[in-house]
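Hey,

Quick one before I head out. I ran the complex with nickel (II) ion overnight. Inputs first:
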Amino acid sequence: MIIDTHAHLYYPELISEIDEILSRAKDSGIERIIVPAVDLTTSETILKLSEKYDMIYCALGIHPCEVKNSDMKSLDEIEKLLGHEKVIAIGETGLDYYWDTSNIDNQKEFFSHQIRLAKAYRLPVIIHTRSSTEDAIKIIKDNYDQNLSGQFHCFSGDKEQLNKVMDLDNFYISFCGNITYKKFNDTDIILSCPESKLLSETDSPFLPPVPYRGKRNEPSYIVNTISKISEIKNTDVERLREKLYSNATNLFFKKI
Ligand code: NI
């Protein structure tokens, strides 16, 4: 069984054929899909999706790139939704210095607030970083205790940063389809990450693995990314799948 821990199924190019996409996901061995919100509106959309489709679970939160379009009131509104039975994480939150550095303080404030929510509601936090891994790790470490758990999704940090995340109990990382691209040359980071700290994700509709590059991504393509990881790590793909599944279950579905 496979868990896609990160798929934005509400994007127009995916929601327009959601039934076919979920059917292909099941055929590929996917049991559950975590859909992360980017703001209040998508948080509400995801809840409705999760009520309609058994395999969909929700992460609610405000993405760093949406901080400029949101206010603290929207986080209060999101907090009211956290008791829903299919909410299993906070996110995606984090820091993004690639698209916008004009509001870093505001991004940090939203990130810290969502970490506080994660701790208060005992939910793992799904973290987005882009050109910001160092600061994100620092904020997590500053707020770290045994009640905090989470995932650095689409990990793009260096080895030193990887080691800092590996030192945190209950924290995991995941890689996207871009690790299958020819220009990806950081196989060392994948080799350095123990299987016990790895999760599987697609980040659909973004970063489709080869041979789907240039198209929109969908959960069923996750098998290509997992195969690539097993190839790099020179490990049995079935065994790796089982490990990734149990890691995701431990982080997100312990209570379910
Ligand atoms: Ni995402």
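The mean pLDDT is 97.

Talk tomorrow,
K.
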